[in-house]
Amino acid sequence: MGVYAGSQDSYTTFDKMFKPVIDHYHKFDYDKEVHTSDMDFTKLQCPPFSEEDAKMIKSTRIRVGRNLADVPLGPGISDEQRTSVESRVKQALSNMDGDLEGTYYPLTGMSPEVQKQLIDDHFLFKEGDRFL
């Protein structure tokens, strides 16, 4: 089941729907707990990968499911705001190095050859996919 909030206010306006879903999925009790965000990546506790494990990893995808504080959530964002978000994300990604370094593939302006390869490698939705 999937539920999407059209704006931050949706979580309070439609709390009778959102609270039970979030409580169940995230094991979070709104009536007893206060949500706090800690975005300090140094506090992440990830299990170590052996060299053998690391060799099995072909790629990694990052799904961004939250928005920037000064930009509406997906259903309410304008084309201009979407372009601004992409620009900001692209800039942030360009500063990554080491294990986090990679290639950014924008959907607009991508060559057909690159698009076909990314689809074949299961990194990009196929043409006509309703989620694209």
Notes on the structure:
With 132 residues, this protein is an all-alpha fold. It has a domain at 103-132. It has helices at residues 10-13, 15-26, 51-56, 79-94, 112-120. It is globular and about 50 Å long. The two termini are 19 Å apart. The mean pLDDT is 81.
> Structural class, judged by helices and strands?
mainly alpha
Number of strands: 0
Shape estimate: globular
Give the topology string: H per helix, E per strand.
HHHHH
Determine Rg (CA atoms, Å).
18 Å
Outline the low-pLDDT stretches: none
User: In percent, how much strand structure appears in the residues?
Assistant: under 5%
Largest sheet: none
Spell out the key features of this protein:
mainly alpha; globular; single chain; 0% strand; 132 residues
Topology diagram in text:
Elements: H1 10-13, H2 15-26, H3 51-56, H4 79-94, H5 112-120
